[in-house]
Amino acid sequence: MQYWLFKTEPDAFSIDDLAARPNQTEHWDGIRNYQARNFLRDEVKQGDKVFIYHSSCKEVGIAGLAEVVKEAYPDHTQFDPESHYYDPKSSPENPRWVMVDVTFIEKFPDVLALKKIKTMPEISEVGLVKKGHRLSIMPVNEQEFSALLAASR
DNA sequence: GCCAACGTTGGC
DNA sequence: GCCAACGTTGGC
């Protein structure tokens, strides 16, 4: 099993929104970055644990935990001309973008602030605190996962 | 809203 | 295949 961090803007979709979905499950659509896509397509597996990270908001940081319940399948929004995520260069025969389904596990009592994460000695290798913190799907190793989870609860 | 850092595009 | 221009992300 592997660990991940998925970014979301809570104004658009938050940990509370995930918890409020039917079966507390939702598809993670709209990933339009090749590196993130490759993670989703090739490495994100059923049962993997996922930190839900809130970005571009008041309380930036890790807000909760989710689990992958369905592995990569075509992201339908890429075929919808009305969608913000429409990609005219993609086709159903040869889909360019994929998504996975995640289900809610828990919301942390407080958001684990990015500021605090940056002070944690265990977390020097997470993409969040290194250069290029722009990836919306990033791996988290087991040691980092444990440290972040312990700091969140 | 600023701006640095990064990804993507497209002309050559 | 290079690289400048442009667009986007995301913390502050």
UniProtKB/TrEMBL annotation:
Instruction: Look up keyword Phosphoprotein and say if it applies.
Output: yes
Q: Which residues form a coiled coil?
A: none
Q: Which Gene3D superfamilies does the record cross-reference, listed alphabetically?
A: ph1033 like domains (3.10.590.10)
- Record's keyword terms, sorted: Phosphoprotein
- All copies of the EVE domain together span 2-150
Question: What is the protein name for this chain?
Answer: Thymocyte nuclear protein 1
